[in-house]
């Protein structure tokens, strides 16, 4: 079979979009030409296609790979070869979806040393008797390379994606099995930890170290795979993790999981803030969850995956089951519209880079215990929501890569960085943040951020020296507030705003010269109503401000983000934003004025400033529904001689004295500004 060749080179360095057909056994008889036509019309440039691993879609010679029994019904007997010819003849890239997470039962019986083993000594079994394997075992470490070698020898593929390359802590039924305790893992852990106990669950004290340990195993395998493929197919990109060519994120919903409405935007931003030169792919799921693969996601929800992806500079991908049109997925039309929009404006997305000068740090699970992480995530999401609603333009900074951003110069772009109740920091992170503040940065830390062992404050730049106490019981927080200095001579008359304290409050020893913003109205009786009085203002700040070198550090000694997320009171949000606006290290060159239900992001492409406006008015508890039209707004910019163009409407926008007049907003719009 003659397969047309596409233009050589690292094609993924340019913006692209992808379409995945997750193959079932019964799809072996698919008409690859019809599918390739569908994908091209959809607007995608690449096709992610099941090739091998658990089940081979080609005539494999290797005994530890199952061959799809339905291939015998195909004339060629080779679905991969047929798909490659169909894709390349239409200018589509074909990427191989591989899955090495499970093996056939007979393979597991012959090689039990390859298998995942739970802390209780159990294997992890699935439908059709498949058994999970462990990345530290011989299947991943050796036999996987035999399969990849066979595929690279047979087919000039354009890329590879490895599904479920993880330590198999949980299965398809969402059952949590815990860290693997196979003999390979136990030996590796002993060397890594120096004799610490191998954790059995996420609540064990050594679990954060195990996350680092397991990530190193995965990253090592991915790095070896990348080099292995590059030696055989240098023009094939690897889609996966930190050491791959293309960073990967799957955007999906899940039964029983709390929805974070900004999850896709957050993830893409964190990846590109760290390494803007490494492309990011977001594979967006058209079905609602694994147990319901034939149930379509809500179209409005699916649209958010793709829009949040491109708004941060990611590459959009659509993830379907089987052959198009065999399963009805009503979200595909809106997916095609957004994918085609992305293809139309590739010149705008080619070279797009984040330029916000405010950064919100995203907590990482490997640097804190389970309870602290849960609290930090609540704080992060509350602060994210607060800034999004008033259109503070910000990037998400991954906590685990702060040192990497410092080393590659990425932190220099930010004038303000926010730490959301992160607790104890790595010593090197504390040192680099001190240096960043000393050179002019403005740091805002909430809750217990930067507090080490014994309550000692880790950062020299902080206005605090030591944490004396932590008030974490909700009953001890009730009927406590912060407010501006009280001016009435009557202790029972208050001037506001009166902001309720919620979550946790931390008492510090403050350095001399520390300034405060608002102070506590101390706890008083709140019931019965006849006794609900007596809140007296005391010298415990709502926020404490100090200088360090050329910069500033602000400590908000309570969980203001969690308070806003769980109570939703504007007074809480406005207090944080008051601190942020007054203490930010740079003036606002861009000011977006539009309804708070719109998420705004900012990027740069050469001389072009690119602002995405996403209508999120359809947000519901578990998904997104239909959006409402948003009244016209404006964008004020520092430059007076600017021009602006709306990409979706494809027309110039009126600019009056540096104010860009926006049209009414439907689902989304992208504004390109020149002359700023």
From TrEMBL:
Organism domain of life: Eukaryota
Protein name in the entry: Beta-galactosidase trimerisation domain-containing protein
Xref: Gene3D superfamilies: 3.40.50.880, Glycosidases
């Amino acid at each position: 079979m003659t397969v047309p060749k596409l233009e050589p080179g690292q094609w993924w360095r340019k913006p692209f979009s992808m379409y995945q057909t997750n193959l079932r056994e019964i799809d072996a008889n698919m008409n690859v030409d019809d599918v390739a036509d569908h994908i091209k019309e959809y607007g995608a440039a690449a096709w992610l296609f099941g090739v091998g691993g658990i089940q081979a879609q080609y005539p494999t010679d290797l005994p530890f790979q199952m061959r799809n029994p339905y291939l015998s019904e195909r004339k060629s007997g080779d679905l991969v070869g047929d798909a490659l010819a169909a894709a390349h003849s239409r200018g589509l890239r074909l990427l191989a979806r591989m899955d090495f997470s499970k093996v056939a039962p007979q393979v597991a019986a012959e090689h039990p040393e390859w298998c995942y083993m739970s802390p209780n000594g159990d294997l992890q079994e699935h439908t059709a008797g498949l058994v999970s394997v462990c990345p530290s075992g011989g299947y991943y470490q050796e036999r996987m390379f035999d399969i990849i070698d066979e595929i690279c020898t047979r087919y000039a593929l354009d890329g590879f994606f490895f599904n479920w390359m993880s330590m198999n802590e949980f299965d398809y039924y969402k059952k949590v099995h815990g860290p693997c305790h196979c003999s390979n893992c136990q030996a590796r852990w002993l060397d890594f930890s120096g004799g610490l106990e191998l954790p059995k669950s996420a609540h064990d004290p050594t679990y954060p170290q195990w996350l680092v340990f397991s990530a190193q195993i995965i990253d090592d395998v991915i790095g070896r795979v990348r080099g292995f493929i590059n030696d055989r197919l240098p023009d094939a990109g690897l889609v996966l993790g930190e050491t791959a060519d293309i960073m990967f994120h799957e955007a999906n919903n899940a039964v029983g999981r709390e929805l974070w409405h900004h999850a896709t935007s957050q993830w893409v931003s964190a990846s590109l803030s760290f390494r803007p030169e490494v492309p990011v792919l977001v594979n967006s799921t058209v079905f609602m969850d694994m147990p319901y693969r034939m149930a379509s996601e809500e179209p409005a929800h699916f649209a958010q995956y793709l829009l949040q992806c491109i708004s941060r500079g990611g590459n959009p991908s659509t993830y379907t089951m089987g052959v198009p049109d065999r399963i009805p997925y009503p979200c595909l039309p809106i997916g095609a519209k957004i994918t085609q929009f992305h293809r139309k404006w590739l010149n705008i997305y080619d070279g797009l880079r984040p330029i916000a000068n405010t950064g919100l740090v995203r907590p990482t699970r490997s640097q804190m215990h389970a309870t602290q992480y849960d609290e930090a995530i609540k704080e992060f999401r509350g602060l994210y929501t607060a800034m999004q609603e008033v259109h503070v333009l910000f990037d998400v900074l991954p906590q685990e890569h702060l040192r990497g951003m410092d080393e590659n110069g990425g932190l220099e772009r930010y004038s303000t960085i926010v730490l959301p109740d992160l607790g104890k920091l790595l010593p090197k992170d504390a040192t680099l943040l001190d240096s960043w503040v000393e050179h002019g940065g403005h740091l805002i830390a909430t809750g217990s951020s930067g507090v080490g062992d014994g309550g000692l404050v880790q950062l020299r730049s902080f206005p605090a020296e030591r944490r004396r106490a932590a008030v974490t019981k909700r009953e001890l927080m009730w009927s406590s507030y912060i407010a501006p200095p009280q001016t009435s001579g009557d202790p029972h008359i208050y001037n506001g705003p009166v902001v309720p304290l919620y979550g946790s409050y931390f008492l510090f020893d403050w350095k001399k010269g520390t300034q405060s913003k608002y102070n506590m109205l101390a706890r008083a009786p709140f019931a019965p109503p006849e006794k609900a009085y007596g809140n007296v203002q005391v010298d415990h700040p709502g926020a404490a401000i100090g200088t360090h070198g050329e910069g500033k550090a602000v400590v908000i000694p309570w969980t203001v983000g969690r308070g806003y997320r769980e109570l939703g009171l504007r007074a809480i949000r406005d207090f944080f934003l008051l601190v942020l606006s007054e203490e930010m290290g740079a003036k606002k060159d861009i000011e977006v004025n539009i309804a708070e239900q719109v998420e705004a992001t900012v990027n740069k492409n050469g001389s072009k400033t690119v602002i995405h406006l996403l209508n999120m008015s359809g947000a519901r508890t578990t998904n997104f529904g239909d959006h409402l039209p948003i009244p016209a707004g404006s964008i004020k910019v520092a430059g007076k001689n600017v021009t602006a163009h709306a990409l979706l409407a494809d027309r110039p926008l009126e600019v009056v004295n540096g104010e860009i007049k926006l049209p009414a907003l439907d689902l989304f719009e992208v504004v390109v500004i020149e002359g700023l």
